[in-house]
Amino acid sequence: MQKIIECVPNFSEGKSKSIIDEILSEIKSESQVELLDSDMGADTNRTVVTFVGSPENVINAAFKAISKASQIIDMSKHHGTHSRIGATDVCPIIPVKNVTMEECVEFAKRLGERVGNELKIPVYLYEKAATSPDRVNLATIRAGEYEGLEQKLKDPKWKPDYGEPIFNPRAGATIIAYNVNLNTKDLAIGRDIIFDLREYGRAKRDDKGEIIRDDNGKALTIPGRLKAVKGGVWYVEKYQRCQITMNLVNFHITSMHQAVDEIEIEAHKRGCRVTGSEIIGVVPLEAILEAGLHYLKKQGKSQGVSEEDIVECAIQSLGLSDVVPFDPKEKIIEYKLAQSKSGNQWMNKPIRTFMNDLSSDSFLGGGSVSALLGALSSSLFTMVANLTVGKKGYEKNWEKMNEIAIQGQKFKDWFLEQIDEDISAFNQVISSRRLPQKTDSEKEKRKKEVEQATKNAVLVPFSVLKKASEIVDFIAVALENGNVNALSDCGVSAMCLYSASWGVYYNILINIQYIDDSVWVNDIKPQADDLLKSLEEKVFKIQKDCKTKLEKKEN
C-alpha cells in the first residue's frame, strides 16, 4: 500500500511573491511530490504551503524548501502580526494515507536531524515529536520569538533538538511538528473568547486583578475548554475584522465544528456573532465530513446523503466562503489529489459516455456493469431510508433508517470504485499477455504474470459478490421499516443486486478456467457458489415479501 504524508511548512514571508516562488520551485523539483496549496498573507507576512507525496520524497522536498528559505529570507528584517521564530517557522508532518502518527514523528525527526546537521539551523521538535514536556507547546518554544532567540539559545535548557545552539541571524530556527493546522475566524472582540477556550487558557488572577503565582513564581492558569487547541487573535486589515486564529492540533480531539460552536456561544455572551470561518492551506476530507454530519444531525436531517451534500453542508454551516471562496477541489486534500486521476475514472464520467463506450468495442464489460448495478441497488435502498427519516408516523424507525442510509452511501461509493477496479484488472490481463516470450526466461516470466493478473481478475468480481452478500440484509430492513410509498424501490434494489451478483459470478467462472493453480481455484470457487446461493435465497424472499406488501396496499 502506498504511503502518503502531508507537509505544511510556514515560511516567514508573505509579501514577496518572487521569494515564495523560489521556495515553491524547490518543492516542485522533487519527483512524486504534489504541491497542493500556497497561501500568502501580507498582514502576517507569512506563507502557508501544503504538499503531499511519499514520505521519502516529501522529506527531501521539505529539506530543499527549508534550505532555500534560509538563503533568501532575512529574519533580521522581518515584521508581521504572526508569532514566528525562523525563516521556516514550523514544518508539520501529517499522515494522509497508510501512515501512523508514530511514523510521522520519526519522519519529523529525520528531517530535523538533516536540517540541523547539514544547514546548521537549530531545530526544535514539538507536539507529538517533542523530546521533553516543556517543548510540547509551540507557544512555549516561540516565546520571545525571533528577537529573543539569540538569548534563548544561550540557555542550556533550550539546547536545540538538532543543530548547534548558535544563533543564525538570517534564518532563525525551525520547528518540526506533527499536527493539523486548521484556522477559523470571527468578528468578536476575540481575545477574551479565545482565552476561555484554548487549552492553555488564561492567567489566574486575584480579586485585585493581579496574576496569582506559585512558590516558584510561575503564573497559575485557568485551562480553557477545548483540548489540543492553541490560539490567539489579530485584526486583519484586508478583511476589516478581528480574527480568532487557532491551531487545531488534533481535529479528532477538538474538531472545526466544535471550535466554531463554542466560539458562537462565547460570542453571543458578549453581544457578538460568528460570520464564518477560514481554512488556511488545505484540510483533510474527514474533518469536513465530520462537520457536515454534525450539522445535518443538528438539523434533524438524515446523515445518509451523498458525500457532495455533506461537504456542501459543512461549507455553508461553517461559513467557509465568508471572506474568500472555498473551492472543495482546491482546499480538500483528497479532492486535490484525485483531480489528476479523475479524467481517467469511469465512475466520474457522464452516464451517456459510459453507455456509448459500453456499446462499442471497448474494455468495459459485464464486470463494470455488475459494479454499476451494485451501486444502483445501494442508491435505491438508501433513497427509501432517506424518505423515511423525518417522516411523520415513522418516528420509531428514524434512527435505524438513518444508519441504513449512512451505510448505503458507503456501499454506493464502494461499488462505483469497482467499475474502475474491474477495468484495471482487465487491462492487467491484457498487458501480461502482451509480454515478450522469445526466450525461456521471458516465457516463464510471462506465464507467472498472466497467472497473477488472471487471479486478480477473479478477486475483483469476488469482492463485489462478497459486498453484495453484505447489503442484501440492508434491503430487507429497508423493506420492513421504510416508507410504504417506496416499497417498490426496495424490490428493484433487490433485483439490481441479484443481477450484479450473477454478473460477477459469470466473470469468476470465465476467468478461473485460465488459472493453472488448481488449489487456489478449488478454494475460491466453492466460496463464490455459497455466497451466490445464500444471496439468491434472501433476494427471492425480499421479492416475495415486496410483492405481498404491494398487493395488500393495492387492496
UniProtKB/TrEMBL annotation:
One of its GO terms (cellular component) is Golgi apparatus. Residues 176-336 form the Formiminotransferase C-terminal subdomain domain. Residues 3-179 form the Formiminotransferase N-terminal subdomain domain. Its EC number is 2.1.2.5, 4.3.1.4. GO terms for biological process: L-histidine metabolic process. GO terms for molecular function: folic acid binding; formimidoyltetrahydrofolate cyclodeaminase activity; glutamate formimidoyltransferase activity. Pathway: Amino-acid degradation; L-histidine degradation into L-glutamate; L-glutamate from N-formimidoyl-L-glutamate (transferase route): step 1/1. Keywords: Cytoplasm, Cytoskeleton, Folate-binding, Golgi apparatus, Histidine metabolism, Lyase, Multifunctional enzyme, Transferase. Folate-dependent enzyme, that displays both transferase and deaminase activity. Serves to channel one-carbon units from formiminoglutamate to the folate pool. PANTHER family: FORMIMIDOYLTRANSFERASE-CYCLODEAMINASE (PTHR12234:SF0), FORMIMINOTRANSFERASE-CYCLODEAMINASE (PTHR12234). This is Formimidoyltransferase-cyclodeaminase. It comes from Anaeramoeba ignava (Anaerobic marine amoeba).
